[in-house]
Batch of 2 targets.
Target 1
Amino acid sequence: MMHRDCERILFSEEQLRARVAEVAREVDKLYVGKTPLCVGILKGSIIFYADFIRHLTSPVELDFMAVSSYGSGAVSSGKLKIKKDLDRNVKGRDVIIVEDIIDSGFTLANLKQLLLERGANSVLIVTLLNKKARRNYDISPDFNCFDIENEFVVGYGLDYNERYRSLPYIGILKLSVYEK
Ligand code: PRP
């Protein structure tokens, strides 16, 4: 049953399960004999992250960051604000950033640079959704599950005002919900 605040389902549970598994298996091939550090960006990525890591066969270490996307719509003025930093030192590590959505690219462009400055050996970006039309920064994911248009999507971790994250599918929110 679809939530009544959704206009339609964009990606069903089955589509998400299949595509996340497919992408994770591709990523996994790059880390044979390595122990990557999987960095989930809170909170939108949590469900994608949990599904993604369970397809990795290499030993992985898990860590999380929370960052503020304040300034993300702007051209280049904003600075990334770290609300929760990593517990692990990334020096020399092969890092996989797991993110729910790349929009302007502000968050991931800054995060990648930060982790490289801290001495990460490599930084791979894996996203669930890519809103290409909105890109303002010179960055693209190394792996992405689905390209989407400029639609307001919720579910599978993504929210509107902290709601709808637990929906098992990705839905398009009704205009009437966020325009009231
Ligand atoms: C979203 C998303 C990215 C960022 C993408 O986070 O998870 O971190 O915005 O936008 P950008 O490419 O324009 O930087 P949000 O601030 O909604 O936080 P959340 O993950 O906790 O929902």
Target 2
Amino acid sequence: MQRYFIDQVVMTKEITIKDADYHHIKNVMRMEKDDLIEIVDLKGCLYLGRIVDLNNKQVIVAIEEELKENNEFDVEVTIALGLVNRNKTEEVLRRAVELGASKFLSVKLKRSVVKHIDDKLDRKEKIVKEAAEQSKRSKLMLIEETKSLKELIEYSKDYDLKICCYEDAEKNTNSLKKLLKEKYEKILVLTGPEGGFDEAEIEVLKANDFKMVSLGKRILRAETAPLAILAIIAYESEQS
Ligand code: SAH
């Protein structure tokens, strides 16, 4: 069933949906009166709704019942990605939502080929919303402001596990498998840009309690590494 994240709190038995979601319901999904949809409201509550009317550029939905379902990880995972171009960033955003990340941010690093991307938050939020609806997330992934390494280190202070994915095998002293055996509330994962990390950056990260981990013997692209680690975290935390 199609899911919609709406920007209102469900407080009445009937709600009105307009704009992009109206367009999606009517013209993309070609839904009709009496079709059922799932709605996640601003409070994160999930409801089953029945379409009672879709005319005049709005859909009227009757709330049938509140559904109890949680498709989120037990742990909050933030992906910090070395700054890459807009296409790659958007690709990572989509996949990170599918794979369960709670937050995303870009980090300006020395070897980032791109020095700046326009933070078109509207466009990024649209991508996140669509991916969350498709993958049936219970919550929207938050996009944080782009940070420098210094700012990231400050930001990382309230995380109880900080991981840096680093392909340089000799310097990898931590087993990801062992690290993920513990229970955490918040994990921060940093992955590098196309050019990887600079040695000095690695030293700063280590000094600030980032654990260097390997994702295997092969070198992954900047846009693949965050997805690989999210899949590993999902496997370790959700498999019984
Ligand atoms: N050092 C290379 C590759 C960078 S790959 C270069 O100079 O071109 C981009 C990022 O993906 C890396 O910074 C790292 O965070 C991550 N990554 C890629 N392969 C990895 C691996 N096998 N283990 C851990 N991290 C990896």
